[in-house]
Each structure stands twice: as C-alpha cells, then as structure tokens.
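Protein folding task:
====================
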Amino acid sequence: MYQRQVTFEEAVNSALKKNYFNLDGRASRSEYWWWCLFTIIAGAVVGAIGSFVGLTRILGYALSLFLFLPSLGVSVRRLHDIGKSGWWLLLSFIPLIGTVVLVLWFVKNSNMYPNQYGQVPNIV
C-alpha cells in the first residue's frame, strides 16, 4: 500500500468543485502543493490580463476573494493530514517564524494511518 500522488487537475477539481469550503478530512501533500501552483498560475494570468485591460487591482482582488475559501480549506485539510488542528493556521500571523513552521509542516510526509480527521487520502 502506498499513497498515490494527486495530479494537478485532480487537485484543482478537488479544491474548486468537491471541497470548495470543506474543512473536514485530509488533503495529501501533492494535493496541497498542486493547489499552490494553480493559485500562482491563476494570479499570473489574471495579473497579465489585468495589466492589459487596466484593471489589475480589481481583477486581483476578485481572484483573491474567489480563491480564499478553497485555499483555506485545502490548508486546513493538509494540517489534518499530518495530525494537526486547522487552528494551527493562525501561526501565519506571527511574522516569519509562523510561516516557516507552517511551510515545514506542509512539506512533511502524510501520516500513513487513519487519524482523528479521517482515512489516509489517495491510498492505492
């Protein structure tokens, strides 16, 4: 048994369609990082379009508003995957140290056993 890697498309579909604001369950490491890549690409595309039509700020705010809830959900589920409460996201309000701790947790391997937040995601 091993944990199957989530594809880019699966991660984006999961965050936007299936789990738009789902704080329950677990998200694998690959699901979280593919989602992060999608948000970076979406920001670059919206920024380019916005600068072309002169609405960079408005389109950027709209994208941020649209992606906030799925980003929050996938982050909480990623913390659940390593056995931590979603409340640990509040560490991000501590400059530098909080962000470093969260990034270290987000790159950590998944717990390969069921925990209080659910079954191991994507087991083959």
